[in-house]
Amino acid sequence: MTPNLPNDAPELLSEFVKFYEEENSILCNVPPEEFARCFRIHFEIPFPMGMPDASIMVQNMEDIKFYIQPGLENKLNIRGFWISKGSSHIILVDAERPDPSKIKTVIHELSEQILTISHNLHPEILKRSDKSREQFVNAVAAHVKMPSEKFRKQIECFGLDVEQLTQANNDTLAGVARHIRDLVMS
User: Fold this and answer.
1) Total-model pTM
2) In the chain, which residues have pLDDT < 70?
3) C-alpha angle 151-157-160 in degrees, rounded to nearest 5
């Protein structure tokens, strides 16, 4: 079913996505292709993000915050991608992914996706002035962050090593910011 108007998206979302409210997040269990289609229609977002399993669209880096979510216990099928737009928080869950017996870390995959996003959003960024590129780098870096208290509570729920995962997350965030700066300012 293909809707004619973006206003049809909430009905599509309720049809294809089973929502689980948890704090301020929505955990959804749906094949990624269907979720990507609903998300794209709902937010009218035109740029491809290039995910391996789905093509979710991202319009404006200033309006969307990317929270890097290290791998939690995969009984939740956490794919590791959390999008925040306004008051809507969405964790993308791959319903088709098999349940491995161990915890997986997805940070490095996300780092590459963030770099791809930043480049795709501004294909002409390298032609801009130093000041303009610096502003872009700072804007992207400011949106690549993790709400630490919520993160700690989440991983404590699964009996994981809070300090180890928090440090790994912080190190990766710093690395992502450096990579983006290198890419844009070179």
Assistant:
1) 0.30
2) 1-127, 136-186
3) 80
